[in-house]
Amino acid sequence: MAFEGLTERLQNAMTKLRRKPTVSEADLRETMREIRLALLEADVNFKVVKDFVKQVRERASGAEVLKGLNPAQQIVKIVNEELTSTMGTEAVALNKSDKIPTVIMMAGLQGAGKTTTAGKLALKLKNEENARPMFIAADVYRPAAIDQLEQVAKSIDVPVFQLGTDVDPVEIVRQGMQQARDQHNDYVIIDTAGRLQIDEKLMGELVNIADLAKPDEILLVVDAMTGQNAVETAQGFNDQLELTGVILTKLDGDTRGGAALSIRAVTGKPIKFVGQGEKMTDLDVFHPDRMASRILG
Ligand code: GDP
Question: Domain Signal recognition particle SRP54 helical bundle spans what residues (predicted)?
Fold first, then answer.
């Protein structure tokens, strides 16, 4: 289960605090030490942990909270609020273009869930907005990638524009965009190449596609199971591409929490959606407050 260790440790710290008839500065220090260790163990970025602990301690110490009614309960509330704020406070909606099509570019390392998530997003747009999305298959390095996109697309009844693997991806995107305009598709979702790691060629190609397609969204798909690697990946992509958001996948797995809690604070980019399963319907809008409550258990 996701966040299992983190939730358990945070709950233990809070339970200990609740048992105390009064809460002293020393008790608070001890609680913050436990929270700090719990977050580090959950693979949360070191600086994010530091800022978080500082913020909670500042709000919780002093007479107002410690000498007030239910200090433990107030501290729990502060922890919840600061977790929420670390993850971005509010859900952030998808950017939309004034005129169709809205262009969404999907980026990510191989295996992160990019193609699956492209399908989930298209289905969500179809179901919730009655939209007519179209995919562009711009991953020309693995023939299997186009087949996979075709399969996903077929299962949700969405058309795919593709020119096989022998045409330059930028040219594929150019022609695909023209077709979407001709056919009045309201969304274009570009599935770009994934690699095992970030390399210059991949980045250069993504930048060229973005220059041409001028996407309203550049969404990076990252695997929550990879913890700090997901955060580094996000930073690496964000250095070269103007990401508009992140989609965190595999939150149905037993991720420790590091990616969910660090990405926003480290990159400044919002998590817009979370993938919580392998089915096409398993994509949810990311709500920082609900995630904080889920982490706290
Ligand atoms: P890509 O290489 O980035 O395009 O990744 P794929 O879309 O092929 O996904 C890789 C694997 O991750 C597939 O087996 C997907 O079914 C799986 N996957 C993607 N998203 C999720 C998710 O949210 N939860 C789970 N459990 N599996 C996922």
Answer: 2-87
pLDDT one-digit tens code per residue, 182-225: 999 999 999 999 888 888 889 999 999 999 999 999 999 999 99
Q: Whose CA is nearest to atom 13 of ligand 1?
A: 113
* 258 belongs to an annotated ligand binding site: no
C-alpha 7 – ligand 1 centre gap (Å) = 25
This prediction's pTM: 0.96
Cα dist from 92 to 81, 88, 174, 234, 244, whole Å: 17, 9, 29, 17, 10
Q: What angle do CA 151, 156, 158 make, to 5 degrees?
A: 85
Alpha-carbon distance of 243 to 234, in angstroms, equals: 9
Say if the ipTM goes beyond 0.90. Answer: yes
Nearest CA to 14 out of 57, 77, 59, 67 is that of 77
Number of C-beta neighbours around residue 281 at 10 A: 12
Does the annotation place 272 within a ligand binding site?
Answer: no
> With 0-12 CB in 10 A as exposed, 13-18 as middle and 19+ as buried, what is 230?
buried
Beta bridge partners of 188: 103, 134
